[in-house]
Amino acid sequence: IAPTFVYDCRISDAITPAHLATVATPTLVLDSAGSTDDLTGSAASVARMLPRAVHRSLPGQWHTVDDETLAAALMEFFTDDAGA
Prior knowledge:
alpha+beta
C-alpha cells in the first residue's frame, strides 16, 4: 500500500464531515469484516455522514473480499433503487 499511502492520507485530511454531508450521489461504502476495527469503524462513520450512503461489511480478510462477494454487493447496489 506504500504507493497510495500519501495520497490516502492527503484525501483523508482534506475531507470534513461538513463536506461529506453535501454529497448527493448515492454511495456504497464497503469494508471487509476481517479488517481491523479502525478500518471498519471508519467505513461506518463515513457512511453515516453521507446522506445517501449504504454501508456493507462483507465477509473477508483485511482489505480482501473474494470477487464473487464483491460483485454481488456491487450488482445489488447498482440495480437497487437506493443506488439509483
